[in-house]
Amino acid sequence: MVFAEDTSTVHTGNAPRAMAALRNLAIGRLRLLGAHNIAKTTRAIRDAPEHAVWIWDITDSPLLPGT
Question: How many other C-beta atoms are found inside a 10 Å radius of the C-beta of residue 47?
């Protein structure tokens, strides 16, 4: 997962606030699942996005990379 709200070309309206809220939601979810190193975990998910499916309870596969 790459959270690049700072490099986004959309800097008006509610877009930056929405991006920050989504980032915080994802980080909170990772902490609830036991991730201790958020940066390492988000890089692992960026490199293998299929792991994000389990994080949101879409599948049963207990894969949490980079914890």
Answer: 11
User: The tokens 């959270």 sit on which residue?
Assistant: 3
When pLDDT is cut at 50, 70 and 90, the band that residue 34 belongs to is confident
Rounded Cα distance between 52 and 26, Å, is: 10
Q: How confident is the model at residue 10 (pLDDT cuts 50, 70, 90)?
A: low
Q: Please identify which residue in the block is written with the tokens 């996005």.
A: 49
Polymer length in residues for the chain: 67
Q: How far is CA 37 from CA 13, 31, 46, in A?
A: 32, 9, 14
Over 80: is that where the pLDDT of 6 sits?
Answer: no
**41 burial class (0-12, 13-18, 19+ CB within 10 angstroms)?**
buried
